[in-house]
């Protein structure tokens, strides 16, 4: 069972399950954990479950991510699992996902984002996504990703809802206030988090291309990353070494405006990289980046 085929296994429920297990010493009877995840309610003397698949979906997502295992009748949390906060858990999930082999059932989580990033770069705009129905986006993503194993449709409208939840939780999109509206793809929070986790000296200054290589390594579904490159090839889209995609441009502009990074440009530099897809952005190009966040260095 994959994360996307466990739609009731939301990020918050999975984290609650794992945190609860840790509080119980790392293992507990599965029936006890099922009751904690989905306690239900009483009608007279009878216990009624609100959603019968909620506990199994939460187990399924946690197991698929490699954080949970079943040992007989007991559920056991991975001994190496460590997540004191929701941000910590998002980091652990992100680390697992970017390290997956292509054959893993959960690669569609970040591959769908890579496809979306490339498609946005190809269209030179982020706004197109709001003109497409959820069902059509799921169809387009499924066609680009191709069939996986016995599942002819890698993405469908139900999986798309689960995918939206996980992307928002990972800091790769911003949830919109209306249920039927699309989320805004926005990697700003995840990029900031990865810069904070990188071993950089305070106020480190990186050449533009070195900075973009760092981004490609830590967020491989964005410019120059292996997943971005994979779907650029799939869509026959030529990547540019002199221009940043709209999604990454938006994130860089946000972090620059917040003072988390400083985008610098020298008038006579031969290594200037331009931003794209966001009108009126200042600066509109850079050849160096100063990282102002507190990092792990």
Question: What features would you highlight for this structure?
Answer:
297 residues; alpha+beta; 12% strand; 3-stranded antiparallel β-sheet
Blueprint of the fold:
Blueprint (H helix, E strand, L loop, with lengths): L10 H13 L3 E3 H8 L3 E3 L2 E3 L5 H11 L3 E4 L2 E4 L8 H13 L9 H16 L10 H12 L11 H14 L2 E2 L9 E2 L2 H10 L7 E3 H11 L7 H9 L11 H12 L3 E4 L8 E2 L10 E2 L1 E4 L6
Antiparallel strand pairs: 1-5, 2-3, 4-5, 6-7, 8-12, 9-12, 10-11
**Helix vs. strand class:** alpha+beta
Total beta-strand segments = 12
Mean pLDDT comes to 89
Radius of gyration: 21 Å
Helix-strand topology string:
HEHEEHEEHHHHEEHEHHHEEEE
Question: If you had to describe this structure to a student in words, what would you say it looks like?
Answer:
It is a single chain. Helices cover 43% and strands 12% of the residues. It has helices spanning 11-23, 30-37, 54-64, 86-98, 108-123, 134-145, 157-170, 188-197, 208-218, 226-234, 246-257, and strands spanning 27-29, 41-43, 46-48, 68-71, 74-77, 173-174, 184-185, 205-207, 261-264, 273-274, 285-286, 288-291. The protein has a three-stranded antiparallel β-sheet with strand order 1-5-4. Strand 4 and strand 5 form a beta hairpin. Helix 5 (108-123) crosses helix 6 (134-145). The mean pLDDT is 89.
Short characterization:
This protein has 297 residues and is α+β, with helices and mostly antiparallel strands. It has 11 helices and 12 strands.
